[in-house]
Amino acid sequence: MSDKSEADTIKDIHWLMDILQNIDVGLVVLDRNYEVQLWNAFMEGHSGVSPQLAKGKNLFSLFPDLDEAWFKQKAEPVFQLKTRTFTIWEQRPYLFHFRNSRPITGRSKFMYQNTSIIPLESVTRQADHLCVIIYDVTDTAVGKLDISRANQTLSEIQVRDTLTGLMNKSAWLTVLESYYASQKQGCLLLLDMDHFRDLNHALSHQQCDEILRRIGAGLKTLGDEQHAARFGGEIFSVILAEKEAEEAMQIAEKLRRSVFSLGKNSQHTISASIGVAERLADTPSASEWLSNADKALYHAKESGRNRTSLFKR
Ligand SMILES: Nc1nc2c(ncn2[C@@H]2O[C@H](COP(=O)(O)OP(=O)(O)OP(=O)(O)O)[C@@H](O)[C@H]2O)c(=O)[nH]1
To answer: Where is the GGDEF domain (predicted)?
Structure first.
């Protein structure tokens, strides 16, 4: 009877060892000196290190790239307090740098891993070994990262103009409303390219795109606090925060000259007209303020283009 149960036990252990070897997670048993006591087939398959080679070796000399300080800071409390610890890929993408072997998540070069470290107690109830369990979570991680990248791109598209990287019109109008509500002084600037239709014909559409891109880059140098946007097509808008009319006109003139200089080595004239409107004590709304800037722009166009006009009642 007792013989049979011993045979059964041996059979059970044999099965367990089979499961440990073939299970689709990495299993590593380490002793107090971080020497490998068990290394299963998953670990062999992904690292190329056989159990025979791993057994008895110090983990950090087997894998010099492994972050020893970080790992020990996680593992020491497991030995001392006999509590398990879990690290997810979002905290640390992997413990062992294994190549990603999954065909559908081939976009990731390495295997994302969740890692558990659990204490293994001896008969004297001391945690003198621990077991590291490695879960391959590459599919989940890549899927989640793709979604969050797509969301980020979407929210960028919602507020950014793709050609210049400036704010788009709807984002800028929201900023304008809140700037107006803050009661702060400032000036609005509208910059509209002159005869851009003709320029598109004379040059190429791509060259004209490049002109718009360079104007966008110039507006970015004003700094984020000046809230520049591509208002649409070949029109740009800027809130010159806390600037009085005189200073705003100087900035506008500088911009106009820099647009004009884009054509200095070309046989074509490149120029812009600019309208500026100061926020006056009685400007009744953000849209009225914008309409004043538009009137000034119209005046600049009517007066011959390539000039800057300040709104006057
Ligand atoms: N290359 C390029 N052209 C654009 C873009 N957006 C608008 N345009 C062109 O800008 C031109 C604007 O034409 P209009 O509104 O008639 O104005 P304009 O020719 O600049 O004339 P004025 O404003 O009266 O000086 C159109 O031909 C548009 O196709 C763009 O993103 N890239």
So the answer is: 184-313
Return d(Cα 111, Cα 106) in angstroms, integer: 10
From atom 13 of ligand 1, which residue's Cα is the shortest distance away? 197
Start-to-end CA distance of the chain, whole Å, equals: 110
The domain that holds 76 is classified in CATH as 3.30.450.20
Q: Calculate how far, in angstroms, residue 253's C-alpha sits from the geometric centre of ligand 1.
A: 21
Of 145, 175, 201, the residue at which a domain comes to its end is 145
Question: Is residue 195 in contact with ligand 1, taking CB distance under 6 Å?
Answer: yes
pTM for the model stands at 0.62
Q: For ligand 1, what atom is nearest to the CA of residue 196? A: 20
Structure tokens, 154: 């979407």
21 and 61 both lie in a single domain? yes
Domain that holds residue 298: 160-310
What is the chain's pLDDT, residue by residue, as a tens digit (313 residues)?
455 687 777 777 788 888 888 889 999 999 999 999 999 999 999 999 999 999 999 999 999 999 999 999 999 999 999 999 999 999 999 999 999 876 665 678 899 999 999 999 887 888 899 999 999 999 888 878 887 887 777 777 788 999 999 999 989 998 998 899 888 899 999 999 999 999 999 999 999 999 999 999 999 999 888 899 999 999 999 999 999 999 999 999 999 999 999 999 889 999 999 999 999 988 999 999 999 999 999 999 999 999 999 999 8
Query: Are both 166 and 250 inside the same structural domain?
Result: yes
Residue 196 CA to ligand 1 centre (angstroms) = 4
The closest alpha carbon to 253, from 271, 274, 228, 223, belongs to: 274
Does 192 sit in the ligand 1 pocket, CB within 6 Å? Answer: yes
Contacts of 54 (CB under 8 A, 6+ apart): 36, 39, 43, 44, 62
98 lies in the same domain as 186: no
